[in-house]
Design brief:
Radius of gyration: 13 Å
Largest sheet: 6 strands, mixed
Number of strands: 10
Helix content: under 10%
Strand content: over 45%
Length: 115
């Protein structure tokens, strides 16, 4: 059974930083390009970052490029998202996903950016 468990969310002021974590199990983690997606209040899922498990190539949505960094530890089946220079519009539930659409994702972790 595929399991994705996110953690690390919280409340932070604009300009602050957070690091999100995802623990994956139930599939061959290394073989998958893993993504982070998010859902802001009243909006649909937004893909924001992905990282290939073999060549470690990364891709980012324009909305987070230069501020967020995705990384992974294949030996520990962990996915990370370092978020810097956070903005109020980054407020959302953040999900670790096994696919870019977010169809297979965890329960999410709330990130709130507010002064």
């Amino acid at each position: 059974e595929v399991q994705l468990v996110e953690s690390g969310g919280g409340s932070v002021q604009p300009g602050g930083s957070l690091r999100l974590f995802c623990a994956a199990s139930g599939f061959n983690f290394r073989e998958y390009t893993m993504s982070w997606v998010r859902q802001a209040p009243g909006k649909g899922l937004e893909w924001i970052a992905a990282m290939n498990g073999v060549n470690e190539l990364t891709a980012y949505a324009d909305s987070v490029k230069g501020r967020f960094t995705i990384s992974r530890d294949n030996a520990k089946n962990k996915l990370h998202l370092q978020m810097n220079s956070l903005k109020p519009e980054d407020t959302a539930v953040y999900y670790c996903a096994k696919d870019q659409s977010g169809r297979t994702r965890g329960q999410g972790t709330q990130v709130t950016v507010s002064s």
